Amino acid sequence: MSSLDSFAITRKWPARHPDRIQLYSLPTPNGVKVSILLEELGLPYEPHRVSFDSQDQFSPEFLSLSPNNKIPAILDPNGPDGKPLALFESGAILVYLASKTGQLIPADTAGRFETLQWVMFQMGGIGPMFGQLGFFHKFAGKDYEDKRPRDRYVAESKRLLGVLDKRLEGRDWVMGEQYTIADIAILPWVRNLVGFYGAGDLVEFPQFKNVARVLEAFVARPAVIKGLTIPA
Ligand SMILES: N[C@@H](CCC(=O)N[C@@H](CS)C(=O)NCC(=O)O)C(=O)O
Fold first, then answer.
1. What are the boundaries of the signal sequence (predicted)?
2. Both ends of the chain: CA-CA distance in Å?
């Protein structure tokens, strides 16, 4: 009997290593944020694939942990006070894991909140806007005759890329010299926009030279290369 047995999610995705962080995910731009962070931190974890083809995200077991039916989610057997902690929402998971380890987030209060501000910029801006652009450019919305919704998200995505490009001027990473969870939140979405969504031309990506430079450095990191493939 492990401390995770009382979590219904472990009935559908049994924990073979209940002492490790359990990750429920898929290699999407939101999912890989967590696998990349776990790889960067070198924390032992056990990934579980939540298959959208089988509608796993709507199963009662998954909803018991992630009521918004979205990946990623985690179950940490060693949460606060040594008790298990279940979490959904990638931003909350990034902040939790960085705080738990004291890594990839500045130690000083001002630097910490500045980092969180950029994580929120991704969660409230880049993620939802790029995601809508993907719908109207690559998925079902591409067949809509009325191109105004697509154009709205193209314009908003370009605006957000402009904000990010300005921030990265003269900086190695979003927070300057220090690589943080802000980079891990934002850059998988930029990669997805120009890669999987094929929207590079649409948003005139080459003009965002600082974003392109930092994205190149990001995707070369061993932890990023590995994290992008998890769960297999
Ligand atoms: N704000 C959420 C968004 C998560 C999200 O949108 N996940 C998508 C995959 S990238 C998902 O699980 N979609 C499944 C569905 O909507 O049914 C987060 O950052 O964790």
1. none
2. 28
66 in ligand 1 pocket by Cβ < 6 Å? no
Q: Please indicate whether residue 59, judged by its CB atom, sits closer than 6 Å to ligand 1.
A: no
pLDDT interval class at 1 (50, 70, 90)? low
Kindly report the CATH number assigned to the domain that includes residue 74.
3.40.30.10
Q: Is 17 helix (H, G, I), strand (E, B) or coil?
A: coil
Query: Is the residue at 194 inside a domain?
Result: yes
User: Within this chain, do residues 117 and 75 fall inside the same structural domain, yes or no?
Assistant: no
- Beta strands 73-76 and 21-25: pairing type? antiparallel
Q: Token pair for residue 74?
A: 């985690």
71 lines ligand 1 (CB under 6 A): yes
Atom 12 (ligand 1) nearest CA: 70
Place 126 in a pLDDT band, splitting at 50, 70 and 90: very high
121 Cα–ligand 1 center, Å: 16
User: Does residue 209 sit within a domain?
Assistant: yes
* Nearest Cα residue to atom 11 of ligand 1: 70
pTM for this predicted structure: 0.98
Give the phi and the psi of residue 21 in degrees, each rounded to 5: -65, 130
